[in-house]
Structure formats: structure tokens, C-alpha cells
Specification:
335 residues; mainly alpha; three-stranded antiparallel β-sheet; 12 helices; 45% helix; globular
Length: 335
Amino acid sequence: MKLGRNDPCPCGSGKKYKRCCMDSTSKQHAEMCDDIAHTAAMNPNLSLDELNLVAQHKITGQNNRPRADFCGLSSSQLSNWLYAPFSELTNVTINIPSDLSTSPVMRYLVLILDEAMQHDGAFKATSRGNLPAKLVKQASDVLPEFAVAQYQTVPSISEYTGTNEDKFNALHYTRILAEIAGVIVLKNGHFQVKKTAQKQYQAHGLQAFFLPMLEAAITKYNWGYFDSGTQNGDLRTFWLFMLWRLQSHGGIDKLIEEVCVAFPDLLRQFPSTNYYTPQEQLGSLIELRFIKRFLQFWGFITVDPKCFAGKKRLPIKTNIQPLLIQTFQFTIKGQ
């Protein structure tokens, strides 16, 4: 489908195409046209069909050529990672780990499922529509079993205050995902596990819900939910690129730099202030929404708190957990 001037820009900035990437795309198009025109001038005997084949060959070659600003990915590969459906992603295999006990999200889902299954598929919600205090207590009791950062940071998987679900971010996140993924539904004051989900759980166990929950977290869940979406930047489009880079080197600061180089139009969403540059604002969003409220909640990584040597801030360190390596296997040539 042809992209119109007033359509949303595919880079994810939220702006109209004509006010975002159209100029750079037009420049690339002009350069390609000049190249094809030069070929035609040097080979005047080419037929129209032959010239079309030359043009197609050049376009395909350009799209499949590794680009330094994409960390070695081609435009075609990056386009797949940004826009392809979850089931059609290339050069990455998303596996279902045999052991999900180290994933907070999946362990909390077990608590919800088991509570329902013990009561004919449903249990009563609180007056505010949250999970009951009994279940929240059970979730807090398993916190010591997870790999967490040495020091508690907010928000993190180790964060927990009170007995209410909405004060327990990782548990609340899990319940929201379970609803989005169609595993449970809140109806008539009760959380109900859908009949199809009950059969899947009985037949295949927790593994049946890993991919649906993960896809819901990536494609349907609002990553700005906990901060009320008040900040710019929808990072979901870029999740696989960011995951690939983080798995490659484990450095959050380096990841932020790579995102800024690969997607410079993202920076335009953050005006410079007296206190923070656009790159610092984008970096803060990546740390908050992608690192802490996605990867940590799933048990894919842990993050050491920021440290300073005198007045100099040291690079942020991540600890890649086995669950991340088991789940995502990349097959990018040259990496």
C-alpha cells in the first residue's frame, strides 16, 4: 500500500509522514532514480523490460545491503522487525522455555490460574476489581525466588508495598496482560479463566500461555500505562531491534546510542530543555519502559543500580538471564 503524505510516519514518531521521514526517503528515491538514469544513458540499447530488471536489481540490492547506522542490519531486515506480525519475524526464533519458574510474569500467572481452577474456574475480585489480598500475599512470598538486582529500585520486580494488587506493579502488569491475551476476564465481580484457557492449561500447562502473553506485552499492551502515557515515544515498534542489541553487548548506554543513530526521528519528539537533552529523555524512556517494566518483569534481565565514580556516572550494567537466551535466538549474518 502506498504511503500518503498525511499518513502516520512508519518510523513510529506519531507525526505525519510529510513532516517526518518523507524528505530522507525522497532523497534516497532521487539517488536511485539518478543511478538508474545513468545506467540507461550508458546502455541505450536496453529494452524497457531489461531496464525494469536493472531497476529491480538495484532496489533489491540497496534494501538488502547492511547499513552501519542499523548496526549491520539491512533496510529489509529492519523493516521486517519493525512492521511484520509477531509470527512472521525473520532471523529470530522465539522459543517457549521448558522451565518458566524464573519468570515473575509467568509465575504470577500460575497463581491466578490455580486460584481459579480451585474454584471451578473463577474467584471473586475486590470491590475495586483487583486481585484478592490472599493472592497478592502469595505473589509477594515468591519474590525471593527471582533473580533481582542487588539493590531495590523503583519500579522493579522487587518493588512491593501494601496488600493491594495496584501497589504491586509486576503482579498488576501480569493481570493486565492475562486479560489482554484472553486468558482471564473480569465479569460480574469475578475473575474467570476462559473455558478454552482451562483446557489449554490442563493439556499443556503454563507453556500454553507464554507466547500469547509475550505477544500481548509487545503488540497490545500500552507501555506508557504505569506513567499514564504522559511521555512521548511509543517504543514497542523498536522492541526487537533493542532486544537484539542488548543481548549482543548488555550495555544500556550503548543501546541508547544505537537507537538514536538508527532512529534519529525519535529524538524530534523530545524538545531540548535546560536540564535534559532529547537523547537523555529518550534514554530515560528506554530504561523505564523497555528495561525495567518489560525485560525485568519477564525475568529476562536484571539491572544494577546506577553508580558514580566521584561525579562521573559509570555505564549502566545489565545481567542477561538464561531465560532471555533460551527465548530469543538471533541468526543475523556477520554477528
